[in-house]
Amino acid sequence: MRKNIVAGNWKMNKTLQEGVALAKELKDALSGVKANCEVIVAPPFIHLASVADAVKGSVVKVAAQNCSDKESGAYTGEVSPAMVVSTGASYVILGHSERRSYYGETNAVVKAKVDAAIGNGLNPIVCVGEVLEERENGKFFDVVSAQVKESLFHLDASAFGKVVIAYEPVWAIGTGKTATAEQAQEMHAFIRNLIAEKYGSEVAENTSILYGGSCKPSNAKELFANKDVDGGLIGGASLKAADFMGIITAF
Ligand code: 13P
Predict the structure, then answer these.
(1) Which of 14, 92, 131, 233 to probe ligand 1 with, by most ligand atoms within 8 A of CB?
(2) 127 Rama class: left (phi>0) / alpha (psi -120 to 50) / beta
(3) What is the pLDDT averaged over residues 77-102?
(4) Domain edges within the chain
(5) Pocket lining: 232 vs ligand 1, CB cutoff 6 Å
(6) C or N terminus of the chain, fewer CB within 10 Å?
(7) Burial class, 39, CB count within 10 angstroms (exposed 0-12 / middle 13-18 / buried 19+)
(8) Is 168 a known active-site residue?
(9) Exposed, middle or buried: residue 149 (CB in 10 Å: 0-12, 13-18, 19+)?
(10) Contact 212 CB / ligand 1 (< 6 Å)
(11) SS3 of the chain
(12) 143-187 pLDDT, tens per residue?
């Protein structure tokens, strides 16, 4: 059966020292709690090894927020999937809407990164989601369908089994405007159905689909109560251990 997951995307926040302190605080907070979900933190690249070290011995897993589609070589400023693995991280967030909109990542780029990540043993958390205009003009299913198909459906079923999908409606990210539980459930069920059509219902039932976008302790329970919502990808509320714990314990 699929996993419930709560993952914190720290984005470009926290110095190394602040990040390590947050990771330790989270580890301590979790030591007395039986989490009913997998817990992941995604700090900036340069924090990965130190954060992986800080959470050692706890249930917390570590993710990068991006990686290169290349293996190695003259790609100044890039970080390869093998480098991410060498820090102790086991996941990588790919295709986040901020990467798509600010750094021009297309579905084709995300596809190449997915292949590189899986080829190096990383589990990709692939983000999809429509912008406000696409929500308002009713194009949101088409947009998300294209994102899922064009970045993931070239994989065989075994490789697809490594993938976590995060539905993050762009209009809900950092805006305080959360999708309603009904909107989230509707899109998650739609995505799971796409997977079932392509890979069969067993693969679909085993795929974790997370919701992201202004998820916080006060709305996590209502969102996670939906049958196709398997957890959250959390931005702002993952930057304080108490808030993040409030979301983890919503399961
Ligand atoms: P917020 O939780 O800050 O809206 O961000 C969501 C997100 O983009 C996680 O990847």
Answers:
(1) 233
(2) beta
(3) 98
(4) 5-248
(5) no
(6) N
(7) buried
(8) yes
(9) middle
(10) yes
(11) CCCCEEEEECCCCCCHHHHHHHHHHHHHHHHCCCCCCEEEEECCHHHHHHHHHHCCCCCEEEEECCCCCCCCCCCCCCCCHHHHHHCCCCEEEECCHHHHHHCCCCHHHHHHHHHHHHHCCCEEEEEECCCHHHHHCCCHHHHHHHHHHHHHCCCCHHHHCCCEEEECCHHHCCCCCCCCHHHHHHHHHHHHHHHHHHHCHHHHHHCCEEEECCCCHHHHHHHHCCCCCCEEEECHHHCCHHHHHHHHCCC
(12) 999 999 999 999 999 999 999 999 999 999 999 889 999 999 999
Q: Which fold has domain 5-248?
A: TIM Barrel (3.20.20)
Which residue, among 155, 156, 131, has the nearest Cα to 143 in the 3D structure? 131
pLDDT (0 to 100) of residue 155: 98
Q: Which two tokens mark 88? A: 């102790």
Backbone angles phi, psi at 223, to 5 degrees: -70, -45
CB atoms closer than 10 angstroms to residue 159: 15
Is residue 59 pLDDT above 90, yes or no?
Answer: yes
Distance 9 CA to ligand 1 centre (A): 7
